[in-house]
Amino acid sequence: MEFFNKVGKAALGSRLRLMTAAITDDASKIYELYGVEFVPKWFPVFYTLAEEREITITEIALEIGHSQPSVSKIMRELIAAGLVEEIEKADDKRKNNIILTPKGVAISQVFKHQLQDIDVAIEEMILQSKHNLWAALEEWEFLLSQKSLLKRVSEQKKKRESKDVEITAYKPQYKQAFKELNVEWISKYFEMEEADYKALDNPEDYILNKGGKILVALYDNEPVGVCALIKMNDSEYDFEMAKMAVSPKAQGKNIGYLLGKEILKTAKEMGAKKVYLESNTILKPAINLYYKLGFEKVFGLSTPYKRCNIQMELIIE
Amino acid sequence: MEFFNKVGKAALGSRLRLMTAAITDDASKIYELYGVEFVPKWFPVFYTLAEEREITITEIALEIGHSQPSVSKIMRELIAAGLVEEIEKADDKRKNNIILTPKGVAISQVFKHQLQDIDVAIEEMILQSKHNLWAALEEWEFLLSQKSLLKRVSEQKKKRESKDVEITAYKPQYKQAFKELNVEWISKYFEMEEADYKALDNPEDYILNKGGKILVALYDNEPVGVCALIKMNDSEYDFEMAKMAVSPKAQGKNIGYLLGKEILKTAKEMGAKKVYLESNTILKPAINLYYKLGFEKVFGLSTPYKRCNIQMELIIE
DNA sequence: TACATTTACATAACTAGTTATATAATTAAT
DNA sequence: ATTAATTATATAACTAGTTATGTAAATGTA
Question: Which strand (E) or helix (H) includes residue A127?
């Protein structure tokens, strides 16, 4: 299958599906070989039933990793085939009490040999191969239970995309973006306040000329994120990190983190000892980001913003 | 999943199916992550189409290892989704000439990144694991193409069962079996002849007392196969191997081979230099067995049996 | 004790594939 | 130039699973 090599690892699913189909096809021929009238899909259910006498349909489903309706259907097929039967029992009437018929017991005897033969045959394949498929499946089941493929891919996506993000200093051409990106989220969650208009309409006067800084994140040369570092003259803090905004279109590219890191680096270069910020706890991803950047909660400072209900600081080491 | 460990390698199929389901589930979420409206099952078809512009449905099916109807269905779904379209072309009217729409081209651009991210994510899993699932699948595809699982299991079955077969010397209690097993196949394919009745009704007089031997194969202590070594006084051969019969119920346990090997060993012990046999070419499995035992075709000896149309000999080294 | 919740199972409708078979277009053979 | 065989695709019916949902029995709780 040329295809697999061309597509690369992303074809893992397809490759697995084909291998599964090949094995399942042979499985039904193997039952024929042993002269038992048996459908491969019955096997996990039948086997579990033969091993553990008292077991409910739901428990079987859990044990073999199928859904309950699947086991339910198979069970009725097994009954129709005369391999198992329901027995009357006075206890819990929701459960169906199922045991093997003599015919079922006979088949389970044949299976003992059959399973042994398959085991040896597969064991031999494992010996003949450099890469142990059985062990690999076991290992990958574990790896995927630790962290799903989705999560792994998503992390990789973020990593790759953040490489394409460029953090650059504010230039007059980004004035509009600086305002729009901020208005976008502020007016979505709260209401624009007097202090917002001042800073967003005149970043030069209110931020830059007072010794502050503004950074812009570019993606494909488009400004998609902004963040300001504002000088706080009459406070115990040197700077306030504020007006951080990332376009919803560019979310999931780690842009907030990259902007924050760069702002803190700038603060350090400018000799800051402590950086302050204000936010609101309904902005959960933002708060998480601040923690990730190293900010910690502080209490009781005055603020001009109504929307502020949490204040944080970071001490630069 | 306790189940897999209890059942052993025979659960390979089930284990593969679950892994496939887990990967496929995540696959559809991954498409969501990249913001493309795309169903995972479309992928192999769409990808092949994006790579090779001029390709028929049947060729795609072959390339990706699906059935033609499966590709046919997916193709119509892709058309309905506006990702590909049929174009008019004057050549072969059975083929449908399909190309990507602009929307399809856009999605195939997104896929370039997506595939790369998945590749890296899976590559990382491979690095984290001791057993390389991707390499194992590739290797097992090859191993199974060389010899199917069915064939491997069938060989193992034969091997195991032949261990339970006991080859023993003729005793009077096997007289009936000696006759019945032979009558069974002779009358099925040919007609019983005078010479048959003589040997089968009086093995003591016609075989044993003349310096011959009869061996019996027992399975579960039941006689299921017989074979005679008859002294040939007035011939260039020392012995004839004859009256070999195996019960149809006990076929596939290598019994013919075991009987033949043991008969030849006996012949050698008795000082034979050449062993002779007669048969008929319609009995293909038997002829194959004789070749396997080392017999070779010879011509032009006289025979009392009408059914004989092939004569063979083996020179004992 | 009555009512809400949970449990055990069944049923229906869907999914992603399959095989078997039909049909139209093309190619090969007489 | 027919006719037969082959090729390319479509369609129908099936398979082995799934999710969503319904129902009766058992359990928990005010």
Answer: helix A102-128
